[in-house]
Design brief:
By secondary structure, this protein is an all-alpha fold. About 75% of the residues lie in helices and about 0% in strands. It folds into two domains: about 140 residues, no CATH class; about 35 residues.
Amino acid sequence: MTSYWDRITDYYNENRKTPSERTKNSLQHRWSDIQKDTARFCGFYAEIERKRESGKSEDDKVKDALQMYQGLVKSVFKFIHCWLILRYEHKWQAHLIDMSTPNDKEHSETLQATEVQAVEAMKDKTLPPKISRPIGRDKAKRMKTSNTASNSTAFLQVLQNMRSDRQAYEERVEQATDATEGAISARSERKLAIQEQQLRLQERLVTLQEEREENLVMSLDLDKMTPWAKDFYLMKQKEIVTRKTTQHASNNEE
């Protein structure tokens, strides 16, 4: 028979919006985190409600509870959407009762003082305080209906803050990307300039080499050469003179 968590795992993977699947252990661990953090937030919200501060709206109470959570737990409450779903559910309230009710061993009169202190020291100070028995199903439905608008407002405010943070992060990433691209472009331009300079230098060296060879040909004493060598170098000298004359004329025209 397929277990409860096996069915949850199959349902999640069939309806997931991400490319990778998640295992049963991964989903159980995720739900455990949601339970623990949401229970903490419930405790903080209950503490805010017990203060009964005048003029405080539902949104104000949610914001105060979020600030209390961040101040005591030292992290942002990430499951506000889960809390909005769970807060009036009968099973969730029963779960909070079970979490906040100490077991018999902790309240046994036979415990020694040192054992009591050890148990108290091990308690998580950020978990919610003891919560009264959950309200009835009908009353919970009425409260859920009457607070829909305020809950939606609080949820939208949290989503707006999350979008603003995300937008600011994306802007920082875009600025960093632009700066990186600018640095890469500058390096590429410098590299291209160096390559062009090296090419001009190589062209200059080739030109100097050609001029040395031409000067050597022009300085030869043709009278001391054999007739065929004399004819060859005489032709070379004429080519050099013709080319130089053409280049000089072209430069004067420019």
